[in-house]
TrEMBL record:
Superkingdom to which the source organism belongs: Bacteria
Keyword presence, Transferase: yes
Keyword tags: Methyltransferase, Transferase
GO molecular function, one term: L-histidine N(alpha)-methyltransferase activity
Record NCBIfam families: egtD_ergothio (TIGR03438)
Protein's name in the database: Histidine N-alpha-methyltransferase
EC number: 2.1.1.44
A family per Pfam: Methyltransf_33
Segments forming domain Histidine-specific methyltransferase SAM-dependent: 9-315
Transferase recorded as keyword: yes
Matching InterPro entries: EgtD (IPR035094), EgtD_Methyltrsf_superfamily (IPR051128), MeTrfase_dom (IPR019257), MeTrfase_EgtD-like (IPR017804), SAM-dependent_MTases_sf (IPR029063)
The protein's enzyme class: transferase
Origin organism lineage: Bacteria, Pseudomonadati, Bacteroidota, Flavobacteriia, Flavobacteriales
Originating gene: egtD
Organism of derivation: Chryseobacterium salivictor
Length: 316
């Protein structure tokens, strides 16, 4: 038993807890990455189109808000670069306007990093692209030895997967890496009604359900478990009052699951859940609270035409 495998350790801890939980961080194996790509294309998942609209229509104003002149060299650092569809608009406008910059996508996954790098270099042969693989903060430590001005991108409402306390710590750590006047462009999904949010996490075609259940498939494959996916169902929840979409896997009946790598059985009651994800929805006030004592200030806010999503410019 390899107890130092973080996946094994977290699955053991999470399934031993009451209520059970496993981090959404583990959704993203190869199949999970592909399912997330499909999620971004579904009609119910409004987040991607809303932020794409902001980037495609307001990239000039976004760039102005960076307060960097096109004679000065700077570094554009993207945390968790994803597929780059949104960033593409920003890069295109920067290149058209002759800005002098290096694009530095940062990701823990070598695979997604090489996909994005290839995509950007095909689209923009003149782009200076310098991908960095690794943990965000380890990479930021390395990058901040250079004295070029920096803009950090953290888009797609990825912050929403963190509980508020962790999100605040994360923003404080980023702030600690910025110098006076440097910026963080933070993309956040805004608080809105249940009839819009819940379907985004409970689509009619069942892709989100497959995405959630894929976590059990991953545990079966990587940890030798015998989860029968038929015994679980995707169970999302959202109230506008709390503003947090939550996903669960709910056991349809009382049964046990064996995990070979742990040599341990885990018991499920009928209707017992494994909590797998939170997706926080924000207001200016919620963000202000996270930013308290961080030295970051909201200096601009870009909205889509439906006011569903916001890209905030935070300045140190
Ligand atoms: C990638 C974290 C923004 O929470 O909306 C989509 C992930 N989960 N559908 C989100 C996700 C279920 C997504 N983020």
């Amino acid at each position: 038993m390899t107890e130092n495998d973080p996946f094994l350790r977290d699955v053991k801890a999470g399934l031993s807890q009451n209520p059970k939980c496993i981090s959404s961080h583990y959704f993203y194996d190869k199949a999970g990455d592909e399912l997330f790509q499909q999620i971004m294309e579904m009609p119910e998942y409004y987040l991607t189109n809303a932020e794409l609209e902001i980037f495609s229509q307001q990239s000039e104003a976004i760039i102005q808000s960076f307060e960097i002149s096109n004679t000065e060299e700077f570094e554009l650092i993207e945390l968790g670069a994803g597929d780059g569809k949104k960033t593409q608009y920003l890069l295109q406008t920067l290149l058209e306007k002759n800005f002098k910059f290096k694009y530095i996508p940062v990701d823990i996954s070598k695979n997604s990093l090489s996909v994005i790098t290839e995509r950007m270099q095909n689209l923009f042969p003149n782009l200076k692209c310098d991908p960095k693989q690794g943990d965000y903060f380890q990479v930021l430590d390395q990058l901040f030895s250079s004295d070029k001005p920096k803009v950090i991108l953290f888009i797609g409402s990825s912050l929403g997967n963190m509980p508020d306390g962790i999100a605040a710590q994360f923003l404080h750590k980023i702030a600690a890496h910025l110098k006076k006047n440097e910026k963080l462009l933070l993309g956040l999904d805004l608080l809105k009604s249940k009839d819009i949010v819940l379907p985004a996490y409970n689509d009619a075609s069942g892709i989100t359900s497959a995405f959630n259940l894929n976590l059990l498939r991953r545990i079966n494959r990587e940890l030798g478990a015998d989860f029968d996916l038929e015994n679980f169902e995707h169970a999302p929840e959202y109230t506008e009052k709390e503003g947090i979409a939550k996903s669960y896997l709910r056991s349809k009946k009382k049964h046990s699951v064996f995990i070979k790598e742990l040599e341990e059985y885990f018991d499920f009651e009928e209707n017992e859940t494994i909590h797998t994800e939170i997706s926080r929805k924000y207001t200016d006030e919620i963000l202000q609270n996270l930013l308290k004592d961080s030295q970051l200030e909201i200096t601009r806010k870009f909205l889509d035409s439906k006011n569903f999503f916001a890209d905030y410019i935070l300045t140190k």
